[in-house]
Design brief:
Elements (H helix, E strand, L loop, with lengths): L9 H9 L7 H11 L4 E4 L6 H13 L13 E4 L3 H14 L7 E4 L6 H9 L3 E4 L1 H10 L9 E4 L2 H6 L3 H10 L5 E6 L4 H10 L4 E4 L10 E7 L5 H11 L5 E4 L3 H13 L4 E4 L5 H13 L4 E4 L1 H4 L9 E4 L6 H8 L9 E7 L4 H11 L42 H4 L4 H4 L2
Parallel strand pairs: 1-6, 1-7, 2-4, 2-5, 3-4, 5-6, 8-13, 9-11, 9-12, 10-11, 12-13
Helix pairs in contact: 2-3, 3-4, 6-8, 14-15
């Protein structure tokens, strides 16, 4: 099957040909015809499966069915994403796919100046890619009009719920037109996702390109048992011994990411950290250096890593296992993307054995273990009591959407706005 058989017009086919796309991926094969038939969609698709093109290409096609007259373009399509990095990535894809169409697009997220975003809205855009926090800022300031939205896409909806955006999403849904097409994409399906889909979607078509809550079969998974105090030395050893050129490493905390990046640099391994406390400019620079090869290791927290889209990323390392099992699936989904092989390695100490059991229970598979000579764990070390799973990401923000003057709104919920 080729893209020419999916009902896409010549300008869109020209753009994707220039992107080097030859055959549609499984999610694209299934999603594009269904979306073109104007059905709501609930899609289970991991990152790296080509899902952005899966919803953007038919969206562009449908926008053309009711072309707007010349003049200011109203917002007709809204794509919500959980993080700045993912918003930027989706926006770049939208720009690439729409280059031979008349549609204008923009991206809005926190951490950068709001005035250029306001200017784009004033000039008119057809497609908006946004994080919920900054979009609500614009709604509160009355700088965006969403009364003409025909299409709503929630990308990585499971992550948005994990990060506590459910209340923001509900506020946004409340002001959108009732009649619209809704698309919900999620790497994992939980009870919360089911509740959201039941309230949002109208007789949706279900699309799944992988079993629920499973990792890509293209990702080779491996656990190295090791004492906590020896993890950094083992990581440096693996990178140097096997000459890894591009490695994405996950830690649980921002402080841990900074500390590990500094230690790796002292070991002679070019490294950078990316997390929520970094400025948007610093995050963008670190990611660009990682993609170009100037930085060999990128150390990231879960939230900051959303939207990292690197072709043929060979290695993902869990320096610390996540205490939320679904995050493991998101982490290792950074490799093994779009048909390429990848390897996910977890450095597991005795304190994390319960986390490992939870992950294996969720994924319904036993992850192979290999002890590295010289880094054998000390059997006399007893595990510390595991920390309780935090629900802080699910805590409501209670942001009010109102018509107060901008000067009054600026001081409210500044932390949430930085999303």
């Amino acid at each position: 099957m080729s893209f020419t058989t999916l009902g896409l017009s010549a300008p869109i086919l020209r753009a994707i040909k220039e992107e080097g796309y030859i055959k549609p991926t499984p999610i694209q094969k299934q999603a594009i015809p269904i979306i073109l038939s104007k059905k709501d969609v609930l899609a289970g698709a991991q990152t790296g499966t080509g899902k952005t093109a899966g919803f953007t290409l038919p969206l562009l096609e449908l926008l053309g069915e009711h072309a707007q007259s010349k003049g200011k373009h109203p917002v007709r399509a809204l794509i919500l994403t959980p993080t700045r990095e993912l918003a930027s990535q989706v926006y770049e894809n939208v720009r690439s796919y729409s280059k031979y169409t008349p549609y204008k697009s923009t991206v809005v997220f926190g951490g950068v100046g709001i005035n250029p975003q306001i200017g784009n809205f004033r000039r008119g855009v057809d497609i908006v890619v946004a994080t919920p926090g900054r979009l609500l800022d614009h709604i509160g300031r009355r700088t965006v009009n969403l009364s003409k939205v025909e299409f709503l896409i929630l990308d990585e909806a499971d992550r948005m719920l994990d990060m506590g955006f459910i209340h923001d999403i509900k506020k946004i849904l409340a002001i959108l037109p009732k009649k619209r097409q809704n698309l919900l994409f999620s790497a994992t399906f939980s009870n919360d996702i089911k509740k959201l889909s039941d309230s949002l979607l109208n007789a949706p078509k279900l699309i799944e390109v992988a079993k629920r809550n499973t990792a890509s079969e293209l990702v080779e998974q491996l656990v190295h048992p090791v004492d906590k105090a020896k993890k950094r030395a083992l990581l440096s050893n693996l990178i140097k011994k096997d000459n890894w050129k591009q490695v994405l490493v996950f830690t649980r905390t921002k402080h841990g990411a900074n500390k590990l990046s500094e230690q790796l640099s002292k070991d002679g391994i070019n490294s950078a950290a990316i997390h929520g406390n970094k400025s948007q400019g610093a995050r963008t620079k670190a990611l660009a250096n990682f993609k170009s090869g100037a930085v060999r290791v990128l150390v990231a927290t879960d939230i900051a890593a959303r939207g990292i889209d690197i072709d043929q990323l060979p290695y993902v390392v869990n320096f610390e296992l996540p205490n939320i099992s679904e995050d493991y699936i998101h982490r290792i989904g950074r490799t093994g993307r779009a048909g390429t092989q990848g390897k996910a390695i977890s450095l597991v100490c005795v304190d994390e054995l319960q986390y490992l059991k939870d992950i294996e229970k969720l994924t319904k598979r036993k992850i192979p273990q290999e002890t590295i000579e010289g880094f054998e764990p000390d059997p006399t070390i007893k595990p510390e009591p595991p920390k309780k799973k935090s629900n802080s990401r699910n805590r409501p923000r209670n942001r009010k959407v109102n018509a107060k003057p901008a000067s009054q709104n600026r001081s409210t919920n500044s932390r949430a706005r930085r999303r």
